[in-house]
Amino acid sequence: MDKVKLSTIWLAGCSGCHMSFLDLDEWLFEVAKFADIVYSPVGSDIKEYPEGVDVCLVEGAVANEENRELLYKARARTKFLVSFGDCAVTANVPAMRNMLGGAEPVLKRCYLELGDETRKLPHEPGIVPELLDRVSPIHELVQVDLFIPGCPPPAPRIQAAIEPLLKGEQPLMEGREMLKFG
Ligand code: SF4
């Protein structure tokens, strides 16, 4: 059986979901038996999201143009996309700024009103990605094949969800242990 091509991407999140993935500890050696990591912020330094990915875990909400572009690319190049953690599933903490009426008032508050002596709005096209007015969970932009809630999802839940996927099977997402938020 060919190895599964596995990727993970990191959008607007704190990386805690990726840290929980690393908490799989020695079971990661089992992952390596069934999958090749073809793109990830942990354990790889591949710059371009590849074609032909089988499974992608998406951490984080969509908060800026770079997040949106990477998510669209990952969706187009991946068979099975997983919304991984509460920020991807609900937008969670990054979406708290949605209550403040768009990107501009948030940027003004942070960089002008609360800024130090060099008050300036960040604007470096091509270097600093522009914030989107509204932070979104990923399923609002692309089709999602599986949701793994949790902030972060505990390692046993991640294992229970991805172990079947690595064997070409569908995980059973039922019960408090698999579906609890927070
Ligand atoms: S769901 Fe929680 S742990 Fe995961 S990126 Fe968001 S804030 Fe961090």
Task: Describe the model.
The chain has 182 residues and is of the alpha/beta class. The protein has a single domain (4-98, 130-179), classed as NADH:ubiquinone oxidoreductase-like, 20kDa subunit (Rossmann fold), CATH 3.40.50.700. Helices cover 33% and strands 21% of the residues. The chain is built from seven helices and seven strands. It has helices spanning 16-22, 27-34, 65-77, 86-90, 103-113, 155-166, 176-179; strands at residues 4-10, 35-39, 53-59, 62-64, 78-84, 131-136, 146-148. The longest helix has 13 residues, at 65-77. It is globular. The relative contact order is 0.20. The mean pLDDT is 95. The structure holds iron/sulfur cluster.
Element-level helix/strand string: EHHEEEHEHHEEHH
What's the average pLDDT?
A: 95
CATH fold name:
Rossmann fold
Q: Whole-number radius of gyration?
A: 17 Å
Task: Describe the protein's topology.
Elements (H helix, E strand, L loop, with lengths): L3 E7 L5 H7 L4 H8 E5 L13 E7 L2 E3 H13 E7 L1 H5 L12 H11 L17 E6 L9 E3 L6 H12 L9 H4 L3
Parallel strand pairs: 1-2, 1-3, 3-5, 5-7
Antiparallel strand pairs: 4-6
The protein binds iron/sulfur cluster.
